[in-house]
């Protein structure tokens, strides 16, 4: 089914940017903002200055603070709120969802408490089959895409045809989506890389260079793939855009909120100071390190970097102690 009208719920960095990507690809887009002043600013000036200063949004992108208006007649509903708020937000929108619309998750996280992936939360709250839920994940730093820098991504859905419809709705001269049916692998790649980016940021903040970075990225990918194997993901997904691609972009970029957050901790700032510096924007790994750690324990998977990041963020371990703990572990084979 051709997608002609899309609702994007969440007007933060990625929600606004992805709304622009779709509008630039052809469909009509209605962007829901939690705050009326953000919706009004976009309507009146075509700019969301709080999240994407200087970026002019296209004419086929409308904004509203009324979710019913955004969702009316939508062929696809894109969910672009922080992971830990998805359940509450979606519960409020549930009755307004058009029955056959593709529900698309942009969020990269694992829910605290339930240990569910975002597509699982969507299925549960909306009461839909897994074939109706898609996930977008890949090396997608919003600020680069907003200025039209070329980027690829993955649209994952167990229903290949649905993924292809969505692929058509968001393909343009700067944005190239691939399809994949491995939803589990794509979601785990997106959630875990935020935690590994925190660790890379900590190392950078301590003054370490590229060898340390590459070591954390590679071993971070190894532990992500181990978790993926336990949860039934396709191992090759982790060599793709939603695995290695996103991991490299996030761990290396000063634009990443997770990496920047970790860097502040590495320089000796407290969690509260790093949180304040994020200006209300979400660094998903700070919470997901705990849910991913618990998910790994539940499945008997060893994730030492995730464990260490959790201890730094929530158990008072210092970044120096984390480095020593990781290097002091038992020696082992690379593929163990
Ligand atoms: N910014 C980026 O470059 C990318 C972000 N993502 C993912 O997309 C998701 C959304 O991220 P961003 O748009 O960047 O986040 P953001 O922090 O820039 O914006 C979050 C948006 O959600 C809204 N929101 C609704 N309910 C909320 C609540 N209860 N608490 C806080 N905010 C609430 C906020 O008003 C805001 O518009 C995250 O899971 C993130 O990991 C994925 C790819 C790229
Ligand atoms: O997911 C992202 C890039 O793909 C954005 O990363 P941050 O949330 O760390 O900014």
From TrEMBL:
Sequence ranges assigned to domain Glycerol-3-phosphate dehydrogenase NAD-dependent C-terminal in this UniProt record: 182-322
Span of domain Glycerol-3-phosphate dehydrogenase NAD-dependent N-terminal: 6-161
UniProt keyword list: Cytoplasm, Lipid biosynthesis, Lipid metabolism, NAD, NADP, Nucleotide-binding, Oxidoreductase, Phospholipid biosynthesis, Phospholipid metabolism
Protein name, as recorded: Glycerol-3-phosphate dehydrogenase [NAD(P)+]
InterPro entries, per database record: 6-PGluconate_DH-like_C_sf, 6PGD_dom2, G3P_DH_NAD-dep, G3P_DH_NAD-dep_C, G3P_DH_NAD-dep_N, NAD(P)-bd_dom_sf
Entries under SUPFAM superfamilies matching the protein: 6-phosphogluconate dehydrogenase C-terminal domain-like, NAD(P)-binding Rossmann-fold domains
Pathway listed: Membrane lipid metabolism; glycerophospholipid metabolism
Compartments where found: Cytoplasm
Residues holding NADPH: 13-14, 34-35, 51, 108, 142, 257, 282, 284
Catalyzed reactions: sn-glycerol 3-phosphate + NAD(+) = dihydroxyacetone phosphate + NADH + H(+); sn-glycerol 3-phosphate + NADP(+) = dihydroxyacetone phosphate + NADPH + H(+)
Gene designation: gpsA
Protein residues bound to sn-glycerol 3-phosphate: 108, 138, 193, 246, 256-258
């Amino acid at each position: 089914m051709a997608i002609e009208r899309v609702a994007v719920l969440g007007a933060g960095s990625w929600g606004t940017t992805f709304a622009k990507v779709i509008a630039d690809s052809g469909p009509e887009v209605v962007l829901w903002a939690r705050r009326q002043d953000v919706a009004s600013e976009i309507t009146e000036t075509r700019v969301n200055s709080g999240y994407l200063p200087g970026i002019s949004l296209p004419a086929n992108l409308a904004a509203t603070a009324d979710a019913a208006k955004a969702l009316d007649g939508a062929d696809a509903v894109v969910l672009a709120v922080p992971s830990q708020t998805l359940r509450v937000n979606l519960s409020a929108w549930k009755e307004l969802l058009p029955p056959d619309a593709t529900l698309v998750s942009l969020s990269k996280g694992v829910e605290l408490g339930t240990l569910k992936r975002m597509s699982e939360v969507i299925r549960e709250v909306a009461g839909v089959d897994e074939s109706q839920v898609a996930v977008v994940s890949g090396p997608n730093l919003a600020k680069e895409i907003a200025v039209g820098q070329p980027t690829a991504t993955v649209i994952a859905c167990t229903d290949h045809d649905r993924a292809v419809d969505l692929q058509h709705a968001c393909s343009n001269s700067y944005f190239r989506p691939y399809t994949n049916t491995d939803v589990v692998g794509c979601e785990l790649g997106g959630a875990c890389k935020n935690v590994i980016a925190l660790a890379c940021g900590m190392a950078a903040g301590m003054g370490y260079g590229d060898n340390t970075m590459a070591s954390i990225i590679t071993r971070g990918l190894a532990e992500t793939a181990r978790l993926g194997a336990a949860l039934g993901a396709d191992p090759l997904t982790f060599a793709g855009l939603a695995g290695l691609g996103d991991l490299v972009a996030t761990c290396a970029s000063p634009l990443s909120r997770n990496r920047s957050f970790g860097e502040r901790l590495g320089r000796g700032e407290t969690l509260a100071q790093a949180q304040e510096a994020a200006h209300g924007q979400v660094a998903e790994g700070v919470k997901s390190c705990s849910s991913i750690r618990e998910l790994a324990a539940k499945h008997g998977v060893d994730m030492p970097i995730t464990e260490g990041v959790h201890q730094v963020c929530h158990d008072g371990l210092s970044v120096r102690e984390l480095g020593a703990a990781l290097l002091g572990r038992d020696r082992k084979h690379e593929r163990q």
